[in-house]
Amino acid sequence: MRESPSDNLLTPTLLTMEGVSKSFLGVRVLHDVSLTLEAGEVHAIAGENGAGKSTLMKVLAGEHAPDTGTVRLDGTEHSFTHPSQAQAAGIGIIHQEFALLEHRTIADNVFLGREPTRRGFVDRRAMEERTDQLLTELGESVKAGLTPRTYVRDLPVARQQTVEIVKALASDVRVLVMDEPTAPLAEHEAGLLHGLVRRLADRGMGILYISHRLREIFELAQRVTVLKDGRHVITARTAETDTDQVVRAMVGRELGAYYPPRAEPGEWGDAVLTVTGGGNRRLRGIDLTLRAGEVTGVAGLQGSGRTSLARALFGAAPFTEGSMTVGGTSLRPASPRQAIRAGIALVTEDRKAEGLALRQSVRDNALLVTRAVPTRGRPPAGRGLTRLLERVRLQARSEDQQAQYLSGGNQQKVVIAKWLAAHPRVLLFDEPTRGVDVGAKAAIHTLVRELAREGLAVLIISSELPEVIGMSDRVLVMSDGRLAGELPAGADEEDIMRLATGHPDHSDAA
Amino acid sequence: MSGAALARPALKTTAARKSRLTDPAVGVWLATAATAVLGWLVVALDGGQLYTQANIVVILSNCVALGLVAVGQTAVILTGSLDLSVAYLIGLGTLVAAETMEGGSVLTAVLAVLALSAGVGLANGLIVTQLKVNAFIATLGTAFILRGYIEDNYTGPAGKVTASFQRLGYDRIGPLPVSVFLLVAVAVVLWLVIRHTRLGHHMYATGGDEHAARLSGVRTRRTVVIAHVLCSLCVGAAALFLASRLGSGAPWAGTEARYDLDSIAAVVLGGTVLAGGRGGVAGTLGGVLLLAILDSVFNQLSVDPFFKNVVRGVVIIAAVALYARRGSRRSA
């Protein structure tokens, strides 16, 4: 662990937030929260969803004006009312949802809102030269293949994040807020990002790093602040605290084992879903069997075809080759509707765009599938709705509450309820706990295992390796659109990465 | 993390290297050229002659009014808004022009029309941004208000356009009507604004993703308001041109030619996405010319109006379907 720059008394505090409070419609979201950030420091902010992290950062970034409290940057007090003011003062924020224009170039995006002009016209050449320079400064591994004229829509998520970082650099940001930056990234991409964050800190930038992932907090940050229910709980040096203490502060209780116990081999039932030689534009030669009672994990780098596999099984981007059986009947679903009728369910990775009708109630969301695809012989789940919502341990004010007002974890529980209402045989999860807080995460994991116990075949795709490893009875690793290998329960991260990166021969043993 | 693990998925360089041919602005001009040749062939087979001097003048003149409106419409649509009030604004604009000229100078009339247009544009922009009324409804509302005023005060043509001003509508330089230069000038100005000024960049940003634009420090509301003012000013120019062409104020000059929907059709045909954020003036002009040539071909062949409209409808739907295909292939 590097020495914290704050040990040097000569360095002035870069940023001080003091006594910040904020209410929305009479609901207090932040109570008297204070925070400091030194130049060159990575300061992690942790807390469950709804703890107030995002609101605190939005106050800092000028998106919300605080009710009370002050923000001081280099000793100067600021009160921002528009993001452009915070930006001008040197505060940059990278949101979970990127603020990028897909159909514009990297240079256009980097200088958005601050385009340099010459004789009244935008000086595109200056924009491109400066962008290129910044990309080069970040190093060849980051730049690789990016040019100022590359369109953002042509970039994978991880590289779009790079554009966001360049955008912050271009505006001479001194305080950079990163809101769960590794959430959409696979492990190796997260590693790259960590390197980049360290480099930014070394340049003297102060970084507020919001994250659910405790491991990266301890790897990256010098200090960690935990918020709970809008209040400040602790701020501690990462060198002087440990995971348990932080988790306790976050959830207000001890968390036992993170993952529920696995199934015993004898608990597996018959094959429920099989694929032989499955392929389409993104997948090749997929042979797969999902058994009742078994949780199968799928790991792989971003772009390896993990999501494509789920979408193919679910008929959203169907297999064009090979054969598939569901419950012993030959069926290769050509549409989600066919898949649903056959008893396949998919919890998608993008909950807000694909999983929920955000402005509809919990009830309407939970009944969406059963209303859309009435299946003969299965009882309509309408009456059992309350029981179902209890089953997934949903915490909502009522069944009438709009889905958009739920926390990420509770939203995910609604999505799961929606599928359980249709009595599926096969449950596919793509990133089951992305953007979900620690408490809800454990609840979802427990629920998934329960469902497997009851005889469902479960497939879990996740870019969080600990999740894949902790949850799965066996792990399939994908690489380049194929199943690169299968590992037994308890496989370690290195084995998985070796298969995922297509270097199985790198293993020095065996 | 091992070195091997750092291997990143390669960039799709082929996708990044965008082919010029798949750019809608280029595509629509190619389609226009094809239509021009095909139209000439069909008319020639019918024993006619499409590109007589007189007919070229007609085609180009027909382009001017729709072109001016569509160029303005491009600005609002790019910004993620829409203007359905253009047709009534044209009607009112011709009336204001003709009636002012009857008693005053040409200059006052021009200024009066532009002031009226700027006012309507400002109103549209403020209703959309401040009252947060969806642009479709907001501009439909102002369209009703304008219509109410026109219907209440006029039953037919009114006012008289000064003879010297009518030259705008009828004079030619060589084979080109002078009004074409008005269209070209307005289009060039708007192209410069959209492509090469900060305002233009912010218009793309606001239309592309308003939230992202705001978070990047773009004053999105102001951008939308200015786009509406620009659009209405273009419509004012169209009204002036039509007034000079018709010789008097014509309450229904805009609605009879359906400039509201036709301008949107031309914009979309030109590859500008109705949701905003992509497209531009060049494509729109191509769309306008394409529609004008089609019209001329149909007139030459004296096709019945039903068939004519069917073809227009098919062309627009086919174009947008093509763009959509290409768009989804890229994002796939």
Automatic annotation (TrEMBL), chain B:
Protein species of origin: Streptomyces gossypii
Any Pfam family: BPD_transp_2
Main location: membrane
Transmembrane segments: 21-44, 50-69, 76-98, 104-126, 133-150, 173-194, 224-244, 264-294
Topological category with respect to the lipid bilayer: Multi-pass membrane protein
Domain of life (superkingdom): Bacteria
Name of this protein: ABC transporter permease
Keyword line: Cell membrane, Membrane, Transmembrane, Transmembrane helix
Localization, UniProt: Cell membrane
InterPro entries named in the record: ABC_transp_permease
